[in-house]
Design a protein that fits this description.
By secondary structure, the chain is of the alpha+beta class. Helices cover about 15% and strands about 20% of the residues. The chain is built from 1 helix and 8 strands, in the order H-E-E-E-E-E-E-E-E. The strands form 4 sheets. It has a two-stranded antiparallel ribbon. It has a two-stranded antiparallel sheet with strand order 2-3. The chain has a two-stranded antiparallel sheet with strand order 5-8. Strand 6 and strand 7 form a beta hairpin. The relative contact order is 0.10.
Length: about 120
Amino acid sequence: MKLFTLILSFLLVVNSNFAKDSWVRGYTKSNGTVVKGYFRTKADNNKFNNHSTKGHVNPYTGKKGSYKPKTGTWVGGYKKSNGRVVKGYWRSKKDKSKSNNWSSIGNSNPFNGKKGKR
């Protein structure tokens, strides 16, 4: 019974992660190129949570995302002097205005949904 519960729990977690994706049926372009069917993230007008966006890995192909949205800046991962490792992340582009930063009150980070607190 414990094994069954464990397997069922695993399947629910895996299924819930892939439920965010949608299947695109294969098709033929007007120039004759055949495009095979594939999974993509569900449309939500957020360019920061797609499999093809830098910082993500496509779970179906294992390919690293390379797309860089124009509204943000990718900060590559690095190691601090105290040895702490910081993973790569998206931040708002630098400019003179503090009111349009993702960390400002009233704004939110489109990549992770965190509300601004400054």
